[in-house]
Design a protein that fits this description.
6-stranded parallel sheet, Rossmann fold, single chain, alpha/beta, 7-stranded parallel sheet, 2 domains, disordered N terminus, 13 helices, 39% helix
């Protein structure tokens, strides 16, 4: 793991021109990996880098956060919606346009994020003379799939790693081991740089508006297991008449979840908030957060809860457990166990001292992931020399 420095360093040295850096993504929708990239762009610019954010699509939900940051922003509007693997003509067009832009920008470092960030831009970045980095943000299911599309994605991904002479990065040891195991690379060759958090934005409020209110936040995909939260709320409501659940976010499961809330008889206790940009304020108006996903890379929402001084109840699954430790900065429960979720929440509300201990431990954890320190750790990585080690996937 690349350790975050205890103090900020001055990179690059005085008298040298700033490091020219491009961050490359497919899109900038409001989600975990994209929020991390926006945060890093701002802090790397503050550290003296010339930072360019290159987005293959047009969608960006971070205009407000990036305004006045000094980051050069390039939205190319090269695609809308999914691009299937059997459309090589569209992929070629995107790669060609990215290649032209990177040749024009001439960055010294190109840091690709998410699968298409690398497969579209990695080789072009190398041709432009840049050193290439790729961050894996999650446990990608296509790495383990046996279907044709998964096999094709693995082939394209490994090819892009080799063509770009790429240095791999992961947001947690769990993600690094996942990548190493299925791609056949040496785990030690993957740098681990945990997700950052801007603690000043998430400082705990002086007042909780509704201490018996719980929040879940994130894109409403099946893997987030929001339905487990609904079933836990039904159990919790029987013990705590004032208990209620907020669900912040949107996604393909929303309609199903709304129907399930009705079927469970708790619709009046559940509020679907949709996509929100005021999550710091929302976290100061609740008494606990639930993170019940079946898998995570390194959950930003858990860091945000910890920085807000909000007690966290989370599924004990890889990725989450890289960050959350039972009874130290969270209460961990088995996956898909609504009764355990309800009981853990009652502990927070009823047992003297446990909630305060979880809150204090979470704030300490959040302070160790401060964004300014994370930016310095990235700069240190960009200045390292490395010997990429790329092999074919192990599950052919």
């Amino acid at each position: 793991m690349i350790r975050l420095p205890d103090t900020e360093t001055s990179l690059p040295p005085s008298g040298h021109r700033p490091l020219r850096l491009a961050m490359l993504l497919p899109s900038m929708r409001r989600a975990g990996a994209e929020s991390v990239v926006a945060m890093l762009c701002r802090h790397l610019a503050r550290a003296g880098c010339e930072v360019h954010l290159v987005v293959a699509g047009l969608r960006c939900e971070y205009h407000e956060e990036l305004a006045g940051s000094g980051v050069g922003i390039h939205f190319l509007d090269l695609y809308q919606g999914p691009i299937r693997f059997w459309r090589p003509d569209r992929h070629w067009r995107i790669r060609a346009r990215l290649g032209a832009l990177l040749a024009e920008l001439a960055p010294e470092v190109v840091h690709c994020h998410l699968y298409h960030g690398l497969t579209w831009g990695g080789q072009a970045a190398r041709k432009a003379g840049a050193r290439v980095f790729y961050t894996a943000h999650g446990l990608d299911p296509w790495l383990v799939g046996t279907d044709l599309a998964s096999r094709w994605r693995r082939y394209r991904f490994v090819r892009a790693l080799a063509q770009s002479d790429c240095r791999m990065v992961a947001v947690s040891r769990t993600v690094a081991d996942h990548q190493a195991g299925w791609l056949g690379v040496d785990p030690a060759s993957i740098a681990v740089l945990p997700n950052p958090i801007e603690t000043d934005l998430w400082h705990p409020g002086a007042r909780i508006e509704h201490p018996r209110r719980v929040i879940m936040a994130g894109t409403l995909y099946p893997l987030k297991r929001v339905q487990v939260g609904l079933r836990a709320m039904r159990l919790l409501a029987a013990a705590e008449p004032e208990a209620e659940l907020w669900i912040a976010g949107d996604g393909p499961e929303r309609a199903n979840l709304e129907r399930e809330a009705v079927g469970l008889g708790i619709r009046e206790r559940v509020t679907f908030l949709g996509v929100r940009r005021d999550l710091p304020g929302l976290l100061r108006a609740v008494g606990a957060m639930w993170l019940l996903s079946e898998r995570e890379g390194m959950p930003m929402v858990a860091l945000e809860a910890m920085a807000s001084g909000l007690p966290l109840v989370a599924s004990a699954v890889p990725g989450t457990t890289d960050l959350a430790r039972h009874e130290e900065n969270a209460l961990l429960v088995p996956l898909d166990d609504p009764e355990a979720v309800a009981q853990a929440t009652l502990r927070l509300w009823r047992e003297a001292g446990i909630g305060a201990r979880i809150r204090a431990g979470g704030m300490v954890t959040a302070s160790q992931h401060e964004a300014s320190r994370a930016a310095q750790a990235h700069l240190a990585l960009y200045h390292e020399r490395h010997q990429p080690q790329v092999h074919s996937p192990t599950n052919r």
